[in-house]
Amino acid sequence: MSENPSEKDVTSNPFMGAAPARELDVPEPASARLTWAADGEKIDYEATAAHLDVVSDAGKLLGRMFSLSYVAIDEEGALEIARRSRGTPRLANRLLKRVRDWAQVRGDGAITEDVAAEALTFFEVDHLGLDAVDNRLLEVLCVQFGGRPVGLTTLASALAEDPDTVEDVYEPFLMQQGLMMRTPKGRQATAGAWEHLGLVPPEGC
Length: 205
Fold this sequence. Notes:
Helix content: 40-55%
Mean pLDDT: 75
């Protein structure tokens, strides 16, 4: 067993999988949201509902990280950050730093569940972990195209994004959450997407 403390920390980190990860060459902040296995296969996002143990462990880890940094955070606050980070380490770390800064500027520096939720809402990360681009993508499918199937290139153009970025960065989590689907005719929003946006789908969608 290695005596290197940093190696011990890595192996005990509940975020880490068995295989090392590499990044897809996409622009920030999109690259912070996607991890890949060493063999090139995509790693599934940890869904909150299906993997509460992972999110719980992640929340506890974030709490320990903050306590070591002398930042006041309770377990519920850490869990809220972990929940909205989709269980992915880099995104969790990014959100954690934003919430810390927000709490220090807007509050007394202490991070509770309410503070974390308010801060992440301010940064346009909703309760499902969707950010502004995710929600914009759903709005394009539901509103701009009226729920009809949309081709990848057309969808990417509407979002002013590269098609590969849409397909590899944004779509996987939305599909995993049951908010969009791929059909032979193109990408299409699900009933869950309409509900998430607070919209009523047209008949036939």
